[in-house]
Amino acid sequence: MAQSRHRPDSPPLLHAIGITKLFGSFKANDGIDLAIRPGEIHALLGENGAGKSTLVKILYGVLQPTEGRILWKGQPVGIPNPSTARKLGVGMVFQHFSLFEALTVVENIALALSDRKSRSALAREIETISLEYGLPLNPCSVIADLSVGERQRVEIVRCLLQNPELIIMDEPTSVLTPQEADDLFVTLDRLTARGCAVLYISHRLEEVKRICHHATILRHGKVVSECDPQKETAAKLATMMVGVEVRKLSSDLPPPQNTRTRLSVQNLSMPQPHPFAVALSNITLEVKAGEVMGIAGIAGNGQGELFDALSGERPCHAANSVSIDGKPCGDMGVTARRRMGAAFVPEERLGHGAVPRMRLSDNVLLTRHATGDGLLRGGVLNPDAARELSDRVSRSFDVRKGTPDPEAGSLSGGNLQKFVIGREIDRQPGVLVVSQPTWGVDAGAAAIIRQALIDLARSGSAILVISQDLDEVLEIADHVAVISKGHLSPSRPTSGLTREEIGLLMGGMGEPHSADRGTAYAG
Ligand SMILES: Nc1ncnc2c1ncn2[C@@H]1O[C@H](COP(=O)(O)OP(=O)(O)OP(=O)(O)O)[C@@H](O)[C@H]1O
Question: Can you give the residue ranges of the ABC transporter domain (predicted)?
Fold first, then answer.
């Protein structure tokens, strides 16, 4: 491994002093001091809504602070926009990539650069940087053909071409397999060896312990602690973030044996809905009452297409391909499936799971109007009941919000996730299909959501969790199957499986997938 040039006593590269950010009367950042030194990987930790994104948006010029100053190499600077940040030497790799699928790597990168170069010169530069930092990429590849890990490399190379001295990374490993995450850590190593600093937001505390030199911990917009994460346990870091000990999951009750099948998928095949989507091929699975089944896989292998087929957002012609409680429903829409007792939580919470400009009390109606649930009085919406329901969900799932009934778009990502999942679990559905249940959610909130999923299963529901987070799958699922290029492997009991074994299956390097046999263990 390359030697980091991090020295705890070197003068800060970036020093934010007394940063406060008000949204109306709400203080999202409250007098934050943050010093980032050359060559260090500096973790920015905090529970959902702690103010991490607000702070990094200020450092990258997307938001302006209400109060406070920023020193760059000791000199006061204003960062009115991201292009000023980039000129200073601050780069950012976002969690959601902004690449054009139909264009090549070099075409995408050219779009982001202000100075015009010939394509061939740029392609050579991309190759040099790829080689230097361990980011293998072919400049001529079309983005649509790349894996998620490769797409992230494009974002990183794009950022490196602007010679940053500080790179901000927002949950960079949440979309990667364990093997791809290891490759990313090698790149980070090489960056820090050259003196580049990294501000690293992550809810994955084991990885923070492994790679970060320093951590600043935020709670309610303030810095509550700083530490060397390598000297702390993950549990201690979680406690510092949340302020109380994070409870361990309990699934004392094993999954019940010989229960009835509640969700059944038989030989489900669907063509790709558009040229960049994945066709589903002969998918078969069963989830029984009392059981949590996990579907692992690298993003973009058909998870979204499978979710749409199971939820009825994209019904298929063969009714028998999907059955809920023994009743064929493959050709039915989402409302009809909800009336059969099923609930669905999509991956994209803003815009798909919730409408940003609607209040939470209106958002509860989106998925529950069809099933009644006491929200209608004489066929007319009862706003008091909707508010009561929204309050109940917020209390049970610890949704933190500035006002009693805010617009969904003003919640932090993790808090909105808790709300959307809580709204569906509150219905006590017989079948729940949920995609990425704890994406962007802090350790405390992830434990609440995962426990709620286990409890719902043990009360007799069948739960299907589609997740890229292997630790999550191993923690809560009784069985796991891996989706790859629209095929689903037979499922296996999770007990005894390691994350490396599933990671290899996800990357297509494990046993040859046998989905075409059309069988799935679900006993
Ligand atoms: N544009 C906005 N208007 C009103 N409130 C906002 C706005 N942006 C953020 N907030 C509030 O500021 C607080 C901090 O949000 P922020 O997104 O910075 O948290 P975070 O630590 O990044 O959380 P997460 O881990 O969930 O992404 C939250 O309570 C959020 O509701």
Answer: 14-245, 263-510
The mean-pLDDT minimum among 70-79, 307-316, 491-500 falls in: 491-500
Site of tokens 């989830």: 287
pLDDT tens per residue across span 388-403 = 999 999 999 989 888 8
Q: Ligand 1 atom closest to Cα of 26? A: 5
Using CA atoms, how far residue 272 sits from 104, 163, 436, in Å, is 21, 40, 22
Does residue 1 have a pLDDT over 60?
no
Average pLDDT of the residues in 86-114: 88
Nearest CA to ligand 1 atom 18: 51
Report CA(156)–ligand 1 centroid distance (Å). Answer: 25
CA distance 139 to 227: 40
Question: Per CATH, which fold does 261-341+430-517 belong to?
Answer: Rossmann fold (3.40.50)
Distance of CA 336 from the midpoint of ligand 1 (Å): 35
Atom 10 (ligand 1) nearest CA: 410
Nearest residue (by CA) to ligand 1, atom 31, is 411
Eight-state DSSP code of residue 491: P
* Beta-sheet strands, E only, within 202-330: 214-219, 222-227, 261-270, 280-288, 292-296, 322-324, 327-328
Task: With a cut of 50, say whether residue 517 has pLDDT above it.
Answer: no
Matching fold, domains 14-242 and 261-341+430-517: yes
Query: What dihedral angle (degrees, nearest 10) is formed by the CA atoms of 251, 253, 259, 264?
Result: 0
Mean of pLDDT values over 318-324: 94
The more confidently predicted of residues 275 and 458 is: 458
CA distance 263 to 58: 46
Structure token pair of residue 67:
């109060």
CATH tag for 14-242 (out of 3.30.70.940, 3.40.50.2000, 3.40.50.300, 3.30.9.10):
3.40.50.300
Domain chopping of the chain, boundaries: 14-242, 261-341+430-517, 358-428
